[in-house]
Amino acid sequence: MSRITCDYLKFTVPTDLDDAALDELCREFFGHPFRNFDKLGNSRDRYADCFSLGGLVNVYRKGFAANAGTTCFDLPGDALRKLQVDTLKLCQYIRNQGGNVCRFDICADDTDNLLPFDEVVRLSTGSTFKELVRTKLCRNRKDSTGEIVQVLPEISVQPRRVMYGSPKSDNYAVIYDREYCAGAEYPFLRVELRLTNRKDTSALLMALTTPGADPAAYMAGVLKGKLDFLEMDNPRKDRRSTLPWWNEFLNGAEVHKLKREPKTSIKIESLDVARARRAFERLKDRGDSEGLQQLFALIDNDQEARRIAFPQVVAF
Description:
about 325 residues; alpha+beta; two-stranded antiparallel sheet; 12 helices; about 25% strand
């Protein structure tokens, strides 16, 4: 068994909250009035005013550029633990307000010493990684000659750490020695999955706030869907079973894949842009003017909407 929780939550709400609204929110979720927050000297993340509660909770106001008209809240793991924040209740608030989750970290602590770190390292190297680890966090790339190069996890000895993906990526996972990084009171390994991809965090928010959801089991399933260690019990990789120690560590969770919403035009919610573009390309290649006119009839006559859905039409 492992302890699976949210270890970082950063979100925005689509309102520039005033002092009264912030005071009410901070009292409810953090147990402190907003007046206890100290104003920081510098702007951050495209917000002019920044406030901090003892370095735990950060609140950003007066957004500009892409963040105009929003308020941002940044809660690291220490804030969630020390202030005993009800993460599920806070997620429900974000959903009710129409907010966005910018970052959501799922962590699982190996308090029962189930993870064999040396085996994790072995599975994450060379051809073994390709055969016995299922993940999309380490994406292959092309070198300067156009050849496909396999990207392997980054492994370090001190601290003991295996990283899947890159901190610069939207999503990545890391298995590391918690004791070495955080002190003797944490004598165990930790697995962390950082999600910053907006579609993934939106899907996770919807799932966690669905009535009857089991947050810990769902987060374990998301982690398993992003990183899975396999047995060589089937010639086909997609049919191989999860290794017993990884399955036990994730409390026997089933894989939960984050269901991303299809991309649609901002003006036409019912029109799937990807499908419309494929249809447009086929009709354009065939020179089917009548078909193109019928396709255009499905969308609004607004030129901005047409430009978003069919950028190629400008050159047609």
